[in-house]
Amino acid sequence: MNTSFEFFPPKTEKGKENLVELTKKLSRFSPEYFSVTFGAGGSTREGTLETCVSIKNIGQKACPHLSGIGAFKDSISEVLDEYKEHGLMRIVVLRGDLPSGIGGLGDFPYALDLVKFIKQVEGNFSIEIAAYPEVHPDAESENSDFENFLDKVNAGADGAITQFFFEEEAYYKFVEKCEKERVSIPIIPGIMPIHEYGALVRMAKNCSANIPIWLKEGMEKYLNSEDQLKYGIEVITNLCQKLLSFGAPGIHFYTVNREEPTSSIIKNLELN
Q: How far is Cα 112 from Cα 40, in angstroms, rounded to an integer?
């Protein structure tokens, strides 16, 4: 099973040490790469690069994120040069969130603009883009959102990672639409392991991800965190099994810098 794991850059020395240990632990699953997020307006630029370098030093492949909104061509070119210097030639390209206090959209108001720019200035980068089976929260419509996705594919994207979801039909529908348009790049489902109901609700709200009624009711049946964790592992294991049986080329786990429940889910999948 092909896997990849997403981290965010730690802010403290202890956090950095913990992430090195986490990388080593998750490395036993032979992931394709570890991706590292890029804060709004480049707020974690140094941290993203530093984290990627530490992952490479462990002997694993690192894939930095890069967001364009609020940024300009000169600053993005500098980041691309840094990535290239360190051999980080696979990038997750996103629009990103406009940081507070910044009024302009910069040279890259949309991810499409950034994909085009990267392919123009350095065609050797491999680009992963975002896909939204449940539609981007800022999209005018489902059709316009999908057209935007197709534009990014046609601009040279090499692969796509979806926003997380909990109902497999959303992924099936999205992939079938891609097949009708003869999209040939891999569409990797992004999966959010569930470790606690309150955290799940907060993350889903931030990303406008739908939490189905059956999942809400299931989580609310369990009052303590240990039981919620077990139920969450069962739910996500079943979801991943269905996606892989459907033909998903791999699973991208949003780890939120935690070993569990991601490790338990993968072990369950390897046993089946």
A: 17
